Amino acid sequence: MLNMDTSIQYVKGVGEKRAALFARLDIHTVGDLLKHYPREYADWSNTVSIGDAPLDENVCIRAIAVSVPYEHRVRKGMVLYKFSVTDGETQMGITIFNNKYAAQKVKRGEEYLFFGKITGNRYGREMSSPQIEAVDGFDRLRPVYPQTAGLNSKAIEKVMKSAVDGLGNALGEDFLPEAFRKQYDLLDRKSAFLQIHFPDNLEQVAQARKRLVFEELLILQLGLFQLRGRAHSYTKAVVEEDYTNEFTGYLPFTLTGAQTRAIQDCLHDMQSGQAMSRLLQGDVGSGKTAVAAAIVYSLVKSGFQAAMMAPTEILAAQHAKTLSKILEPAGIRVGLLTAGCKAAEKREVQQQLANGSIGLVVGTQALLSDTTVFYNLGLVITDEQHRFGVHQRATLAAKGENPHMLVMSATPIPRTLALILYGDLDVSILDELPPGRKPVRTYAVGTDKRERI
């Protein structure tokens, strides 16, 4: 009997080699497979006559093979198999490319379903490379899955059926009470999985999606509430004094009102005894890095270290260069740690983090490695949080004792969406640009301007 955690290779029809193909789709377990939802559905139940079928659109034709596929070699490596079919009123030519196995399955006088696009002119109609199936059992909605080389949608569908059958009652384990499901008109979990993969009709697909989307959002919200509970729990990283005035003396520019307010928001949280968990949102050029530098200064002066994680090595290097110019004249050492750093450089930075001589380290996911240990981590900053998973953020935070968390994003986020994406965070917005900065303008450009782009 299968369960949700069973390795995909133990599903009937998979095995070790095919499991490697599923891994390309990030499918490793039966649970992963069930959440590999169809991107669309092919309607094999709605057959049309050859004469009435629209051209260049996917249609399903029910027809009888009136000839045996004959082989036609075009060139080396290209073999065509051609035959004719009829629906009783109109004949149509079928061409199969380089698929001897499919051609051999077609028998003269047998009825089949042909799914594909019809082309034609006044001399007749043709269908090239259609999907061909026996009539029995295939006249229904068929799932079309995201696929990869060596693993087509039909193969995924077959494995999906084996997984569903192998799960049995384990497919129906539902954590939503029946009364709750009735209140919100939701399918039970077993029916939702069955109807999303093997639907009776499009209405049932919609119902299945409703249940599965509801479930995902509910789990996300519960996880975010749990994170918020953690975020507002006790921390040892208490900033005893606000050193912002001292810090601004090292700056060659004056902070904007929005930057000053954001710094005060952060320091208020960091002085409270509870772990800060805050989103700093502002356009490119609004000065998020200066805000981060200001709170790092007060934090390091209080005896703690900070880490900033960026999504790319280039961005990490840029941040490290900018922050070094601001913080090192003030006596705070800044380190850079990425996968691209030389081994000797990595060891040196990691040693200095471990003994506390580096106050701020900027890096990529290299910060998450087991060999990166902090002396006294008190603040984690992530840039462009939507490029990181919650798990990565939590992994970095686990290197300290409930450190403060600051997320920086240049993406404008409506308040309602922020509650979903950043439900565990308080929000500070930089709504002013420093003097002399040109406003950022965003344009939507159509494909007709592709050459100019």
Explain what you see.
- There is one protein chain.
- This protein has 453 residues and is α/β, with parallel strands linked by helices.
- It has 4 domains: 1-44 and 140-167, no CATH class; 46-136, OB fold (Dihydrolipoamide Acetyltransferase, E2P) (Beta Barrel); 174-231; 237-430, Rossmann fold, CATH 3.40.50.
- It is built from 14 helices and 16 strands.
- The strands form 3 sheets. It has a 7-stranded parallel beta sheet, with helices on both faces. A 5-stranded mixed beta barrel has the order 2-4-5-7-6. Strands 1-9 form a two-stranded antiparallel sheet.
- β4 (78-86) and β5 form a beta hairpin.
- The longest helix has 30 residues, at 202-231.
- The mean pLDDT is 89.
Structural class: alpha/beta
Helix content: 25-40%
How much beta, percentage-wise?
Answer: 15-25%
Please, how many helices? 14
- Uncertain runs are none
Query: In sequence order, what are the helices and strands, one letter per element?
Result: HHEEEEEHEEEEHHHHHHEHEHEHEEHEHE
Which CATH class of the largest domain applies here? Answer: Alpha Beta
Quick one: overall form? elongated
Total beta strands: 16
In whole angstroms, the N-to-C terminal distance is 55 Å
Q: Give the CATH architecture of the largest domain.
A: 3-Layer(aba) Sandwich
Spatial sequence of strands, sheet with the most strands: 12-13-11-14-15-10-16
